[in-house]
């Protein structure tokens, strides 16, 4: 069963379908039944009502609220993590998109930078290049005014429901907000046409940073599993390319920002994993120079030890510097939803 908390909702299919693309074109390559299965895995694109989306489970789990230092294999407290944050040059904050606690803790991390007078830029997976053009060179005094600007380009990101708090912290700190994602038209072109639609910068970054064979195999397994095993080879290849292209694009969004102390990225946890996500595409110097990756991970029922959580990421070791465990959102099993849908169509 796929874990939406692990994927972080990073699958290109749903971005194409639910962000208003031409459905007739899209259906030429993605059968509609698989669209349903794929899109049910994207928390940020869920059509659930707000009260359902915000219900939290396992709030009394023994790991909930604890912070794990992956390399030292020990728990640390928030003050210790704050000390690491203050010294970071690249700070990557990985989330599950519909988990409010993740956003609250990300806001805390960015506020730590501001409290210590660190200059920063903050790039968001949730903001596209097209939206970036709308908000560029403008000052916003509140999350409401920023969201109004972002909404000039319609998406299904639930900014007011999930991101208003973190936007307010970034605005209060007077940090520059940058887009880190492709616009929807580019996403669809890449899915449909493949590498021919990559920008020269993204194509070069992918060519210069080829994934090792074991990571290619792991990525393939993750995408196939997250789509309930109901996906063909062509779709898998398209989604693998899109995932890599998005990671490269996010790395490019952070490049050239040398006039600030810390470059921050807010993205799904699957995008910030160190073994094949955005950190993989940073320069060797940036990888070694105070890169800090925090992954917020939802706890699982009856799993109170840290080590088993690596399995949901397809690894022996959690692919972050620090893991902050949280309660999980009460969301339906996407594969069960798909099975029930198919039964209703018989």
What distinguishing features does this structure have?
alpha/beta; eight-stranded mixed sheet; two-stranded antiparallel ribbon; globular; 346 residues; Rossmann fold; 17 helices
> Would you list the SSEs in sequence order as H and E?
HHHHHEEEHEHEHHHEHHHHEHHEEEH
Biggest sheet details: 8 strands, mixed
How many strand segments? Answer: 10
Q: What is the architecture at the second tier of CATH?
A: 3-Layer(aba) Sandwich
- Classified by CATH, the class is Alpha Beta
Q: How are the strands ordered across the major sheet? A: 3-2-9-8-4-7-5-6
Find the CATH topology: Rossmann fold
Structural class: alpha/beta
Low-confidence stretches: 7-53
Which value, in Å, is the CA radius of gyration?
Answer: 19 Å
How many domains in all? Answer: 1
Fraction of residues in β-strands: 5-15%
Distance between the termini: 23 Å
Q: What's the total helix number?
A: 17
Return the average pLDDT rounded to an integer.
Answer: 86
Shape: globular
Helix percentage:
40-55%
Task: Provide the fold topology.
Elements: H1 4-7, H2 12-18, H3 23-27, H4 32-39, H5 50-53, E1 56-57, E2 67-69, E3 74-76, H6 78-86, E4 90-95, H7 100-115, E5 120-128, H8 129-135, H9 143-150, H10 159-172, E6 176-181, H11 184-193, H12 200-208, H13 213-226, H14 233-254, E7 262-268, H15 269-272, H16 284-288, E8 291-298, E9 322-326, E10 328-329, H17 334-345
